[in-house]
Specification:
TIM Barrel; alpha+beta; six-stranded mixed beta sheet; globular; 52 strands; 940 residues; six-stranded antiparallel beta sheet; Ig-like_fold; Glycoside hydrolase family 3 C-terminal domain-containing protein; Trefoil (Acidic Fibroblast Growth Factor, subunit A); hydrolase; Rossmann fold; 5 domains; single chain
Length: 940
């Protein structure tokens, strides 16, 4: 007989009692089974099967057709929380609607990604919102509120934020260590997560693959010490895929999987995403960890309780689904919202009067992305699609638009003959009503004939060069040459894609010919008796160029009134999950295309459609107009055309800095944004385009900046007037610049923003309410948040550089004070500056230490108060082996302590007095955790 919980809210006990009641009915084995991502049902207590994890980054992903909104970085570029909340609402409605017909659709959605876009070469740049923690938190809060829904009791979906914490590289992503000092931790990385969690619309987080301060995120003490202190509700922590096993297999942080699983569970991981749908490996590890005394049943119950709490909030335990019939899918409203989002995401980088285009313009539309509507790894399947070519033909009429893709057209010849793509009319059964190929059916197909050779001229292929020597080859029917599991090469893919892309190749010089290496398998294309396949030894091909792409572009450009060059990236190539970019530069082939267009016609604009910033200083100098947008989803082409035509005035703003060259970038794995002067907050060079930059077809006047402080809040008001002749949105931005502070502070820091719509001549008074605490910083001398007494410059403008008005504010806050090291000692990681060091884990469960990463490792602690009588000795808490040298003396030689976690305390003579800066130099493999100082006259 099936037992049921009390089901109706008017008669049900409080939430925690309902969960505890259900928990008490479950056996130990049933509770352990609930700790895997795919949990079985327990029929006798009315518990259905459940899984954590439904990707919903910018629409419902991986589950077939859905409304596809712009990429997350594009949503960040809108600077519009109201819009993004509406998108979250639409996505959650589609999740519910799709679930009614497919129980594989999960209600625990893994979105959004709030990792800060610290480094623009990160392969997953498309997934984040901004390099700024305020903007990221604001957009993330809006999206999660939409996902959660507005029901007073139940959640439409349960969002989980990705990826906790300080994760911004794919290179060595499961073994790299993000060294994050306390100021960066509190002022930068934690801030992006804090606001959405505190707002109450977040169900939990997913830890990232990397280590932070030497400790894997899946056993991070910050889950307990930070995350779970920000809200009174239960939070669910879902592991990233395979990460629990990484603790042993790649990170070697624990000796056994039982230790690793136990440590993750105790640290706060509640759901283990590992080994796909097979839960037996994880549940076996948990059972053995329990038997070995590494965990208790209470640890298991804590995690299960958090899972059941989320499921109860989703309405699962009610007689009637509270959202039954309330879902909506591919509605007119969702389609309109997708178009509005695509329009609002477009950023006008430069315009010397070329745009907007007149209705009568003859347009040459050229470039590799001119007739593409690209999706990414976390997209749903497009129901509708609009390419730039579609959009311009619709808006300006087909006869006014000339198209040239700009690909190189080639034929490949070998000793056996010319490469030939057989006819594939036999695949009509997989075509839809409008003749479109279903990419899900085409991917990996083996029923199509493989390539072969003929003695005639062979098949003309479109060779698409994506940079970094990676290219795709496309048959005349539009399908890409791909390699299936049987190793044969077929024209079978609608687009490059998949976890391992099977549609990219590299041409390698081989004498006077080339070998064609398939990057997905690492093998070479070879002509065999039964067809063309990949093999260890490849066939040498001669490449005959039928037409160069730049020549086709130049011809089209010469006869046009204006040229629009559409360039950018394919989201599956040269930068994506598992692969960082190697350069900010536009690929050489695309660079040649805009130059060829410019040479043929000076009225050339460059429209960049990509997931990343690019370094295009020559284009900025030579071209009259540039635009950028992220891949804009299903309405991308129509949105671009409406902006080019002036139907919509562009008002997107850059959510991250666009640097002028690779030389402006820090090392990819350097997470110290303060010390290495990263992002607009600290960058001291001249960016190509600044954070917050974006132009308009209108002009705006800013006037009447007024600041009022009321208790713990600042109210800043400014009047913005549209002085142009076209209706347009404007995005006033409020920044702060602390002046004459005792520690390095941001050059400018975003405090607030607002996107507003203004008719010509209209004005709006905008008020920003900002907590005074937002002007503060993490004070390492006190170990807490602090607002320092002093003068703060408040700046209002249209970007971080386009400042229109300023005023000054004097605050009476914390007075700068020396470090009381004689009383409190020094935590090694609480330095002011460092060189050649990294923060590592003091123990596997908590605490920090510092170790050398180079030969000149040094730490600086400013204004240390050693007392009027001074000190006579220093005591260091250290592990490993090496040396610690304090100031001009006090060198401590550390003999091998027996391991990196075997700490000892050692003393050395050290004399100093008064307030002074202390420099500490590290040598060898020593780990320094703490320094204490012995007052003069004290017996050691």
């Amino acid at each position: 007989m099936t037992e049921r919980l009390p089901l109706h809210p008017d008669t049900a006990p409080p939430t925690d009692k309902r969960v505890d009641d259900l928990l008490s009915r479950l056996t130990l084995d049933e509770r352990i089974a609930l700790l895997h991502q795919f949990t079985p049902g327990v029929e006798r207590v009315g518990l259905a099967a459940f899984r954590t994890g439904q990707e919903a980054l910018h629409g419902v992903a991986w589950m077939g057709p859905a409304t596809v909104f712009p990429q997350s970085v594009g949503l960040g570029a809108t600077w519009n929380e109201d819009l993004v909340r509406g998108i979250g609402d639409a996505v959650s409605a589609e999740v519910r609607a799709m679930r009614e017909h497919d129980d594989r659709i999960g209600l625990n959605v893994w979105a959004p990604t709030v990792n800060l876009l610290r480094h623009p070469l990160w392969g997953r740049n498309e997934e984040g919102y901004s390099e700024d923690p305020h903007l990221t938190a604001a957009i993330a809060t809006a999206y999660t509120r939409g996902l959660r829904g507005t029901h007073p009791t139940y959640w439409r979906t349960a969002p989980v934020l990705k990826h906790w914490l300080a994760h911004n590289n794919e290179t060595l992503r499961d073994t790299s260590n993000s060294s994050v000092r306390p100021r960066v931790l509190h002022e930068y990385d934690l801030k992006a997560f804090h606001a959405p969690v505190e707002a109450g619309a977040v169900a939990g987080v997913m830890p990232a693959y990397n280590l932070v301060n030497g400790r894997p995120n899946h056993v991070s003490p910050y889950l307990r010490e930070q995350l779970r202190t920000w809200t009174g509700q239960e939070l669910l922590v879902c592991s990233d895929a395979g990460a629990p096993s990484n603790l042993v297999d790649s990170e070697h942080y624990f000796d056994t999987h039982e230790e690793a699983t136990a440590a993750a569970l105790v640290a706060g991981v509640d759901s283990f995403t590992d080994h796909g749908t097979d839960s037996s490996t994880i549940t076996g590890r948990i059972r053995r960890a329990l038997d070995q005394g590494l965990i208790s049943e209470s640890d298991i119950d804590t995690a299960v309780r958090r899972q059941l709490d989320v499921r109860l909030r989703l309405g699962e335990f009610e007689d009637r689904d509270p959202f039954e019939g309330a879902g909506a899918f591919d509605t007119e409203e969702h389609r309109a919202l997708a178009q509005e989002a695509a329009e609002q995401a477009i950023v006008l980088l430069k315009n010397d009067g070329l745009l907007p285009l007149p209705d009568t313009a003859h347009i040459a539309l050229v470039g590799l992305l001119a007739d593409e509507c690209k999706t990414d790894w976390y997209s749903g399947t497009l129901i509708h699609r609009s390419t730039p070519l579609d959009g311009l033909c619709e808006r300006f009429a087909t006869e006014h638009v000339t198209f040239a893709e700009g690909v190189d057209r080639v034929r490949l010849r070998c000793d056996a003959g010319w490469l030939y793509v057989p006819d594939s009319d036999a695949d009509a059964s997989v075509r839809g009503a409008e003749g479109a190929l279903d990419p899900a059916l085409l991917a990996g197909r083996t029923d199509l004939p493989p390539l072969t050779t003929v003695t005639e001229s062979g098949t003309e292929l479109a060779l698409v060069d994506w940079g970094n020597d990676l290219l795709t080859l496309r048959a005349p029917d539009g399908r890409y040459l791909s390699v299936a599991e049987d190793g044969f090469v077929r024209a079978s893919a609608e687009q490059p894609g998949g976890w391992v892309v099977q549609e990219t190749y590299t041409l390698e010089q081989h004498g006077n010919a080339h070998l064609l290496r398939h990057t997905g398998t690492g093998r070479y294309v070879a002509v065999t008796a039964d067809g063309v396949k990949v093999a260890e030894q490849g066939t040498a091909f001669q490449v005959e160029y039928v037409e160069r792409g730049a020549d086709a572009v130049a011809r089209a450009a010469a006869d046009a009134d204006v040229v629009i060059v559409v360039a950018g990236n394919d989201p599956h190539i040269n930068g994506r999950e598992t692969e960082d970019r190697t350069t900010l530069a536009l690929p050489d082939h695309q660079d040649r295309l805009w130059r060829a267009a410019r040479a043929a016609n000076p009225n050339t604009a460059l429209a960049l459609i990509g997931a990343y910033p690019y370094a295009v200083p020559d284009a900025d100098t030579e071209l009259p107009a540039l635009l950028w947008t992220a891949h804009g989803g299903q309405a991308a082409g129509r949105a671009l055309a409406r902006v080019l035509a002036g139907d919509v005035s562009p008002a997107g703003r850059l959510p991250q800095t666009w640097y002028a060259a690779d030389s402006d970038l820090p090392d990819l794995l350097d997470y110290d944004v303060i010390g290495s002067r990263q992002t607009y907050l600290y960058f001291e060079g001249a960016p190509l385009y600044a954070f917050g930059h974006g132009l308009s077809y209108a002009s705006f006047d800013y006037d009447g900046l007024f600041v009022h402080r009321d208790a713990d809040t600042l109210e800043c008001t400014v009047t913005v007037t549209n002085t142009g002749t076209t209706p347009a949105d404007e995005v006033p931005q409020l920044y702060v610049r602390p002046l004459d502070m005792p520690v390095p502070r941001p050059r400018r820091q975003l405090l607030a923003h607002r996107r507003i719509a203004l008719a010509p001549g209209a004005s709006q008074r905008v008020t920003f309410s900002v907590p005074v605490a937002d002007l503060g910083h993490w004070d390492v001398t006190r170990g807490r948040w602090s607002v320092t007494s002093g003068t703060y410059e408040l700046l209002v403008g249209a970007s971080s550089q386009d400042i229109r008005l300023t005023t000054h504010l004097t605050l009476d806050g914390d007075k700068p004070a020396p470090r009381p090291v004689l009383v409190d000692g020094l935590d090694a990681a609480a330095y002011d500056e460092q060189r050649g060091t990294a923060i590592v884990d003091r123990t596997k469960t908590s605490g920090d230490a510092v170790t050398a990463t180079g030969p000149d490792a040094e730490l600086l602690y400013n204004a240390c108060d050693l007392g009027t009588n001074g000190v006579s000795a220093v005591r260091v808490t250290v592990a490993g082996a090496g040396t610690v040298a304090i100031g001009d003396g006090g060198t401590v030689t550390v003999p091998a302590t027996g391991g990196p976690y075997n700490y000892v305390t050692l003393d050395a003579d050290f004399t100093a007095r008064g307030v002074r800066d202390l420099r500490v130099r590290l040598g060898g493999e020593v780990r320094l955790a703490r320094l204490t100082f012995i007052p003069r006259g004290t017996t050691v």
